[in-house]
């Protein structure tokens, strides 16, 4: 810093103000200081600045897997929103979803010096019914049922599923089969509960749940079973990847979509409009989930106070060509 000050002909305090982006520096002086920084290859010592300011401008993110569309897109949105606020992201995957694993991740992130933590909590922990997080830490949880004790952000999974099932019933289908996500997933359970509730409220039969693991391959295997059922005229798939496999299975077994079977997915992935036929699905606004996660944890950091409650980001039904009224013989 002293070398920059000498080359630019200013004080070290002026260099510090320019480095920190402070106002009150004449533009000509600021440009002279920046030119000196470039010439000398000077870069501010972020660790020293963090110690002085009492903040590290870094957010920690804990998650259990990067193999699902929801997690990847949520993480992408968190990263972009944090960058817009001038924060970097430190990502810490937890191999096994246990309370011990979560606490270990918090300890590690504490050592790495982060200002707040976002936990993408898409599955139940294996060793406890509810998550317990270390006290006195600014934290927001995405996709969880922990809203009574922590700040939670999630898409409105239940309303999205209700819209999908109502759409199929309104088309005239007697009932709707469900290709569900894996047991233990918060999102899968909410979508399954909503599917069942809509059918029961409408006085319709509730078929046995057919379960997959979010992958297209699991959707294909489930689709082979459903394709052999002549009474299956409508399927609500818990995500678009499983719907893709389902469409393949129906095609191979000669069941036309939507003439013989209507299909609705969930997520609205970028490729959904290019499925054959283009997939009717429930759109999740992952960008808004990420933005609200970052907004929530930064609010806690600035106020030095934890918050509770769940914020739901609305979903919407995207109508395409994979649904139609059932054929009547």
From TrEMBL:
<keyword id="KW-0804">Transcription</keyword>
<dbReference type="InterPro" id="IPR010982">
    <property type="entry name" value="Lambda_DNA-bd_dom_sf"/>
</dbReference>
<protein>
    <submittedName>
        <fullName>LacI family DNA-binding transcriptional regulator</fullName>
    </submittedName>
</protein>
<dbReference type="InterPro" id="IPR046335">
    <property type="entry name" value="LacI/GalR-like_sensor"/>
</dbReference>
<dbReference type="Pfam" id="PF00356">
    <property type="entry name" value="LacI"/>
</dbReference>
<keyword id="KW-0805">Transcription regulation</keyword>
<dbReference type="InterPro" id="IPR028082">
    <property type="entry name" value="Peripla_BP_I"/>
</dbReference>
<dbReference type="Pfam" id="PF13377">
    <property type="entry name" value="Peripla_BP_3"/>
</dbReference>
<keyword id="KW-0238">DNA-binding</keyword>
<feature type="domain" description="HTH lacI-type">
    <location>
        <begin position="1"/>
        <end position="53"/>
    </location>
</feature>
<dbReference type="InterPro" id="IPR000843">
    <property type="entry name" value="HTH_LacI"/>
</dbReference>
<dbReference type="GO" id="GO:0003677">
    <property type="term" value="F:DNA binding"/>
</dbReference>
């Amino acid at each position: 810093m002293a070398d920059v000050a000498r080359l630019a002909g200013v004080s070290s305090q002026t260099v510090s103000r320019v480095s920190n982006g402070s106002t009150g520096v004449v533009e000509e002086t600021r440009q002279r200081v920046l030119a000196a920084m470039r010439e000398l290859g000077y870069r501010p010592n972020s660790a020293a600045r963090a110690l002085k300011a009492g903040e590290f401008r870094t957010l920690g993110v804990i998650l259990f897997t990067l193999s699902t569309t929801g997690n990847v897109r949520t993480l992408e949105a968190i990263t972009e929103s944090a960058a817009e606020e001038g924060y970097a992201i430190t990502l810490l995957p937890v191999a096994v979803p246990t309370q011990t694993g979560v606490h270990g991740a918090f300890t590690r992130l504490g050592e790495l010096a982060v200002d707040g933590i976002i936990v993408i909590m898409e599955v139940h922990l294996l060793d406890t019914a509810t998550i317990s997080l270390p006290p006195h830490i600014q934290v927001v949880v995405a996709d969880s049922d922990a809203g009574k004790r922590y700040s939670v952000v999630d898409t409105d999974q239940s309303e999205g599923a209700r819209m999908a099932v109502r759409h199929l019933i309104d088309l005239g289908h007697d009932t709707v089969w469900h290709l569900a996500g894996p047991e233990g997933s918060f999102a899968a359970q909410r979508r399954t509960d909503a599917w069942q509730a809509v059918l029961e409220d409408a006085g319709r039969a509730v078929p046995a749940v057919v379960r997959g693991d979010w992958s297209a391959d699991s959707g294909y295997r489930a689709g082979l079973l459903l394709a052999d059922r002549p009474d299956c005229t409508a399927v609500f798939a818990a995500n678009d990847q499983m719907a893709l496999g389902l469409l393949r299975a129906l095609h191979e077994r000669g069941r036309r979509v939507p003439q013989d079977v209507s299909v609705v997915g969930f997520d609205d992935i970028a490729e959904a409009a290019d499925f054959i036929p283009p997939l009717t699905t429930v759109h999740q606004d992952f960008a808004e989930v990420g933005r609200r996660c970052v907004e929530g944890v930064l609010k806690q950091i600035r106020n030095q106070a934890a918050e509770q409650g769940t914020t739901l980001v609305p979903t919407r039904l995207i109508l395409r060509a994979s649904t139609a009224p059932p054929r009547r013989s």
